[in-house]
Specification:
By secondary structure, the protein is an all-beta fold. It has strands spanning 11-18, 23-39, 42-52, 59-65, 71-78, 84-89.
Length: 92
Amino acid sequence: MATLPLAEGYETTFRNFDVLSQKPKAMQLKVVGTESATVPAGTFDCFKVEVSSPDDGQRSTFWVARDTRRVVKLMSVMPRMNGATLISELQK
């Protein structure tokens, strides 16, 4: 994601290898805006990026720091795990 030309309104489709099904699947990426994200490592000015799969309903939201392009926060809803939500935050 760090190498993509992220900007408000940017959209693309890419193929990603799904480890569980052992097959590639199409994923849709869209920058839905910018917002501040506060995590244990600090507060960052971020692009808010939504990634989804039309095949299985999986969806994830990434907060990507605008200056370093580092993912500082991730929230993912996983339908194959009964809708479990995974949250990951940058610690340092």
